[in-house]
Amino acid sequence: EASELVKQAAYAKFNETVELAIRLGVDPKRADQMVRGTTVLPHGTGKKVRILVFAKGEKEQEAREAGADIVGADDLLEKIQGGWLEFDSAIATPDLMSSVGKLGKVLGPRGLMPNPKTGTVTFEVGKAIQEIRKGRVEYKVDKAGNVHVPIGKVSFDVSQITENAQAVFSSVVKAKPSSSKGRYLKGATMSSTMGPGVPLECTTLGRHVE
Asked: Is pTM beyond 0.85 here?
């Protein structure tokens, strides 16, 4: 059982993050084979997520009431342009995206740019905040054709790690591009922050036989 092996291999004195890496049979250079999406982990990530919301007026108030850590508009834009990045997830209302979009070079490389495809560009800011708090994670295939997703902490039960991994597998399979031919799930490993990668049997964990 991979989840058990990862827990046993963890040796750091801190509560290491468990990460799932999936190798996909896609060509990321092709726009029609870009795999990205979100899924809610049934047991969360085990991490306290700092949520920033770009909003004004009623939506600003809604974000505060929903428990956002940082809320604002122009003031936050200036702060981020100045190098401040003390948050883990960002949400923006559509009316502010023309301004937020100018932060693309700063937020994009760090995976912090709000995006309609991941539900972080929305007027339903309260709902978006709740989903992130519940354990919603985003993923995007990298240049090498891999997807990396945090699926918990080594302190989690084996069943919790396994069920979180299954949720990610299921979501990634649903996100398969129609233009992707041949074997889609090429391989996967699970590892803790400092531990070795443990190979997984994709078809068993994802319950998807190709």
From this structure: no
